[in-house]
Amino acid sequence: MKELQGFIARVMSDYFKHFECLDFVFDNTEAIAQRAIELFIRNASLIRPLGEGGKMRLAADFAQMEMAVGPFCRRVSDLGKSYRMLRSFRPLLFQTSEHVASSPALGDTIPFSIIIQFLFTRAPAELKSPFQRAEWSHARFSQWLDDHPSEKDRLLLIRGALEAYVQSVRSREGKEFAPVYPIMVQLLQKAMSALQ
């Protein structure tokens, strides 16, 4: 985060501060700030496993991210949905899966696909994330998400990972699923019906 903050401050002072038309600069740098926030949240939702210490560090990174993108805009709150998503996601780090699933931020502020992806961090290793199931790196998965901006495509990929988990439990003749699994399925069904 310190590197990002330093880089953004340097870019603004070395390249953009010389322009007299700050409205033009901010109109164009806000998109960079929004993209940075979206990528940050995407990567935060992929961290696995996420212990208590990791949650604390990640929560601090959320606050740092807000400050880091500050030079790219008049006010960070001007970043709209990206800013609201950043502010809404942070408290979810410390909530139970049930509370995460009932968050009012779900759907409108934070896409279901990101929240379900985040819930994989609470699952046992047997319940593989979509990118793990496909044997992709984080970078490859991130590129796939960029290439597939449709929430439906993303949810279908998640559904495939959940179905593969069910098959693996059945193949070993397991009797029960991970506690987070029914919550993830419920959210997936809610998300798919919202797309109808």
Automatic annotation (TrEMBL):
Protein name in the entry: Component of oligomeric golgi complex 5
Q: State the organism of origin.
A: Myotis myotis
User: What is one term from the GO cellular component aspect held by the record?
Assistant: Golgi transport complex
An example Gene Ontology biological process = intra-Golgi vesicle-mediated transport
